[in-house]
Design goal:
A hairpin with a 5-residue loop joins strand 2 (54-61) and strand 3 (67-75). It is built from 12 helices and 13 strands. It is an alpha+beta fold.
Length: 388
């Protein structure tokens, strides 16, 4: 076998080709978009490079000359600084069911991270935000994967656990039928908030692009900014997020709660893009874009995906979760476009949001592990702290 660093067009193409061999006989697998992967490793498009981030990628070629595996290792200084010890990351890992291939890949990735001064490694994670390519899938390998979320072979878990990786936190994906009635506690909360007055629910249709970015930035920072592993969002980042979502967003399913004009809660959904991207074969080139536009026009996607939900910390315990969820749910039901909804992953470190999801009558659809390995085994392992 040969270990090869990704450095040129040939090896960059091979990095995309590896999963096609791994999942050639898997009817569920949908390739990540080539363009999405390339952005992660492009210094001109991933701002982490400008903030001191570094990355390397490797491939393994087997004895027959076929690509048998790949991995990326990276250091995100901002992520590392929030940990008890300098912590790097590995991701985009793929391997045939061969311990020798996995060992070769993980050995080189961990050795390089040690050279960068790292004392621990998290994986499989993204060289970027947590909303994409984050975690190891450990159950439900038969349902359609959600766009931007990892999908892997069940045997990958063996590779990581055998090397001393432990669960840093678990990530749960929940789902429910849109037509289900919202539970009585949510209706009660909605009625209480309406009786109090001063609150209203709006959608992205009620906002221009600049207002949408500002509302998202304000609501996100007051709900999540400062939590463990979540940094405050600059307005420019919110503006970039809105620009990224523009081609795919359905403004009817992006919600804000306003209190006297100020956004105090938000619930951002998009259509399940993998119901569309399954038709483009992993490449959003000119032909892929035409297929995307056609299926978007046809409303091919009948699943909505909740990307992020949050309530201003000053308004916790006041019933805004019920007010927002019940109001949004009734609007979605009235439109009749979506049959099911999926909530993007919720960490086990966030029991409040897990209770909200479970109280909605959802069922747990998938579990992912974010795993950590301490390079010094004498250092006590600690799981991620609970959100406050």
């Amino acid at each position: 076998m040969r270990l090869i660093e990704v450095q040129d067009d040939k090896t960059r193409k091979a990095f995309h080709d590896v999963p096609r061999r791994i999942y050639a006989d898997d009817p569920v697998w949908i390739p990540h978009l080539k363009q999405d992967i390339d952005k992660v490793f492009d210094p001109a498009k991933n701002r982490l490079f400008k903030k001191g981030g570094v990355v390397k990628r490797w491939l393994v070629q087997d004895e027959a000359g076929k690509w048998a595996g790949r991995v990326a290792a990276f250091v995100n200084p901002k992520y590392s600084r929030g940990m008890d010890q300098p912590t790097g990351g590995i991701g985009f890992f793929e391997s045939t069911d061969d311990d020798a291939v996995a060992t070769l890949l993980l050995d080189v990735a961990e050795a390089w991270l040690k050279e960068q001064g790292m004392e621990a490694v998290d994986g499989p994670v993204n060289f970027g935000e947590k909303d994409r390519f984050w975690g190891l899938l450990v159950d439900n390998f038969h349902d359609l994967p959600s766009y931007g979320m990892n999908y892997n072979r069940p045997y990958y878990r063996r590779f990581f656990e055998s090397r001393g990786y432990q669960v840093y936190y678990e990530q749960y994906v929940y789902g429910r039928e849109v037509g289900m009635a919202v539970q009585a506690p949510f209706e009660r909360k909605r009625a209480q908030i309406e009786a109090r007055g001063g609150f209203k629910v709006i959608t992205a249709n009620d906002l221009n692009e600049a207002e949408l970015a500002q509302h998202f930035c304000t609501a996100y920072n007051n709900a999540w900014g400062g939590h463990h592993g979540f940094s405050k969002m600059p307005l420019k980042q919110a503006q970039r997020t809105v620009q990224t979502l523009k081609p795919i967003m359905d403004k009817d399913i992006i919600y804000f709660v306003l209190h006297e004009g100020e956004p105090v809660a938000f619930y951002v959904n998009i259509p399940e893009l993998n119901q569309i991207f399954c038709h483009v074969n992993g490449n959003l080139n000119a032909v892929g874009k035409l297929k995307f536009l056609y299926h978007k026009w046809r409303h091919t996607s009948d699943v909505m995906v909740g990307l992020v939900f949050g309530i201003d910390r000053r308004y916790h315990g006041k019933g805004l979760d019920g007010f927002l969820i019940d109001t949004a749910g009734k609007q979605v039901q009235a439109k009749g476009r979506y049959k099911t909804t999926t909530l993007t992953w919720i960490g086990d470190f966030n029991p409040k949001m897990i209770r909200v999801a479970e109280n909605l009558g959802t069922t747990r659809k998938r579990t992912f592990f974010t795993m950590r390995k301490l390079f010094d085994p004498s250092v006590p392992f600690k799981r991620v702290p609970l959100a406050k």
